[in-house]
Amino acid sequence: MIDSSQFLKDHAPKFPKEPSKSQTPPSSQAYKFALRSLGAAGASEKRLKERMKRRGFSQEDVCKAVQILKAMGFLNDGVLAKEIVEKSAKAMEGEPLIRLRLQKAGIGEDDCVLAIKEGEEEIEEGRGRFLLFLKEESGSDLQKALKLCKKKGQPLGLAMKIGASCTPGSVTP
After folding, report:
1. Predicted pLDDT of residue 120
2. Which of 27, 34, 43, 173 has its CA 20 to 30 A from that of 161?
3. 56 burial class (0-12, 13-18, 19+ CB within 10 angstroms)?
4. Among residues 103, 34, 105, which one has the least CA distance to residue 72?
5. Residue 114 near residue 139 (C-beta atoms within 8 A)
6. How many whole angstroms separate alpha carbon 20 and alpha carbon 6?
7. What is the model's pLDDT at position 10?
8. Smallest Cα–Cα separation from 148: which of 138, 139, 157, 136?
9. pLDDT at 145 > cutoff 90
10. Domain edges within the chain
């Protein structure tokens, strides 16, 4: 069986911190569960705490495990928020949809705002790629263009930028 702590250290170069002697990871079940949870799928501090509480761990054990993981650099909402923004921007998603994804992940408002501000350039590049995709996919069908904009959380005004117009039968009276 793979040791989760060692796996994260080997495969997560963005977490260079080593625990100090006073922060030696406990051998508690709560800490091991938290480490496995983060190893399987990244989580925000809020979501990890919720998961651990549902699992029946005491408030004290949850707080201790989270504190150690944060000190070691394994649990960082700011980094998770940036990763979500990058992934969403690559998927050509707009800012409202990105904000929704951040909130669903349990990222705090301050980290949301900061991550979106830092990712503005990537979001704008995604919008440019989406505009090209929109031109190709919808042609001149305004209804199709509007649906695609709504689905990706992009501004509805982009449908007008591609010169879409109402095609006969596309708008119901």
Report:
1. 92
2. 173
3. exposed
4. 34
5. no
6. 16
7. 57
8. 138
9. no
10. 4-75, 78-161
